[in-house]
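Question: Now follow the chain.
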Amino acid sequence: MISLKSLWRNLFRGAEFERNLSDELAFYADLLTQEKISRGMSATDARREALVEIGGIEQVKEEVRDVRAGSSWDGVFKDVRQSVRSLWHSRGWTALAIGTLGIGLGATILIFSIFYGILLQPMPFRNPGRLVQLWEARAAKGWDQAGFSRPNFWDVRARSTAFESMGAMVGSNMNLTGSGNPEHLSAAVVSAQFFHVLGVTPILGRDFGPLQDQPGHNHDVVLLSSRFWQSRFAGSRKVLGTKLHLDNHAYTVIGVLPNGEPWLNAGDVFVPMVYDPKEDDRGNFEATVIGRLAPGVTISAARAELQSIAQGLSKTYREDRGMGVRVAQSEIWRADASLRRALWVLLGAVSLLLLIACVNIANLLLAKASARSRELCLRQALGASRHRIIRLVLSESLLLGFLGAALGLMITEWGLAAIRFAGLSGIPNAANIHVNGWVLGFALAVTVLSGTISGLMPAIQFSSGNIAAALRESDRTQTASRTQNRGRTVLVAVEVALSMILLIGASLLMRSFGKLLSVNRGFATANRVIATVNIPLNYDDARAATITGTLLERVRALPGVHAAGTVNSTPIVGWDPGMGFGAEDSAQTVDGKVPWASWRFISTGYLHSMGIPLLKGRQFVDSDFDRQKVRRVIVSQSIVNLLWPGKDPIGRHIILWKGQGNDAAEVIGVAGNTRDHGLAQDPTRIVYIPFVGQTNSPAQLIVDGTLSPAQVASSLRSILASIDPQIPVSGVETMGELVRSTLGSKRLDAALLSTFALIALLLSMTGIYGVLSYSVARRTAEIGIRVALGADRIAILSLIVREGMQPILIGIAIGLAGSLAITRLMAGLLFEVKPFDIASYATVTVLIVTTALIACWLPARRALRVDPAAALREA
């Protein structure tokens, strides 16, 4: 081997390198040839000996190229160009590989976009780590988390030193009048420092003044949400100073809040909460309280101080006896525990899908590299190092990864558009879900990772191939080595195992969702339309009752209406007022705690209009709405089961707001159980109370009949215009739509996981088919010889299918074991379905075996069509 000292000088000379390298090697070869001819050797022998002494021109060139490539980007660029040529040469294979990776990467980026938008997107508040939310608690009554009463909020804020600032918000509703048709607005009543606590500054105008919630200051001011500002005023900056007539009272617009979740879009308008030193209702837990910890104060120190303040209030006020305070950091505003668990499950599922795609690409690369083994081994024979071969194969897989990522980003955008079109109801921070810089960074990282994973096994395998054997065999007759076959078999088993886990998880979710849809809700949805009628809060009880009564009378007289009634809270999704209760003739409690029930103010006809059955007793009649008489109520069966099991409850007395007002009421009827906290929750304990006036919330009108939502809306507007033109109608929809809106996140979970599972199954079966097809094609000569020697075609078919099914059965066994371990994490997402549901496991196993048999049978059938004579000629 000659010294390459002079050649190394040319390593970094760019475009001149190849020419100088060839010229210098040719010069040395000619020089040595002439020297050996002068010694008496023939020209042919002299040339051969010279090349042997040099070490082979091409071998030396490859070695120097390899050294130079390790020292500059030139080799990398050459590998990329070679990969581009290779991929272009096999365009069908390339399209399949890009499509496979694109689907895996697209699904992964899509889920990460949702994950980031909900759980990782920075909240639009200053230093959110110092923000907390506070709740009142009554351990003796079983209240772990209730809102604050307004008096308790003012007292706690005044006495606390652990907080830099503290604010409260009470949800409300207002009617906008004075310009065209009245409009129902969601409103929020907030303390003056509420947005200061969050560290939010209006994008236009100013915030409430620090004393704007104190007596003697101007309270007729309003802040607008960015959403309402854009929709009502088209983003005009002239909105400042505008007068808004809300509930027949004029408010001056002083500012516009920035867009963001949570809190900033909690209402269309925000008005000051006014401190009233005479207010003493400490049993109305309506205020949401937030606080910003003072510098240096820990959350545990704040808890200790709040408990001390609560104990002081407990000693002072009868309603606050046993009062405690619960504190949690602002991280809970992003999503509840169920949604967090669902997002982690989806992220894990899509990671499995991406891994399946990578395994599929690895299998495709193995097959392709097998066909290229002569080329790769020839490169090694000419001096290419193992590192160079690995880099060449990895450059091809990484190039596939980036092309797949481009397709994946398009799939992500299409997926997000489809999800938005289908609706994201029930999902917080939905507006934050989009492709941003962080998502693109994640996409880049996962693309490099997936490209590396896909190409690593083929790269290592073919960089250590048997050079001599590969060069002896022709490409046409070469059979994959045992190592290569074993590698593809392992990859098939891994694909099947991962697909099994995904399919079982999807089956569990789909069965759970099906049970949720078919669960007994306790009320009817067919032919029911619901509408919101917001009676202004400044109307007295008599006026509100008269409006409601007249409205119901005229609605019931409409053609096609079978029944109509009102309730103070929207079923399933509405405000859920609660109270302690008990039997007057018994001191019964639950584990020493006062049981808790929801209460509903309803009109006559409500139960009928909702399709809630009356099991015992009677409905409300007009005389039950007389406040001068003893209060009468209808209770749900679940309350009867608790207070009077096996007894007749009609005529008995129940204590309402036990531990607070202790109001006695006579039970006149028993209604069927309903799931008013959501379909996945246990039946709700409900006390139905006659509506006798203002309820501090919009009346929800339920109409049972043949009218469409548009017809109901038109009729209601006409009726209300004649009763009171200041009252708007809003939120008109069918009960079916309302129920479906509560299932948005569960439907999304089931749909996405099922889609991923089906894609995984398709990729796995494609991988199985591809591996067997390749194997059969490589064994054409062998099969032809077997047929020529008289082998039974059924035996050949059985042989091929048996070989194909072996890794599949191994994958199924591994997948079943993995599913038993992983599906336990899904327990909190399932409804009336166990994580070890035998039906799901059996169904998925049968599905995979069936599809796998088909994937094995297709190439086996093609093998039986081999012409023995043609196969023998190729052998």
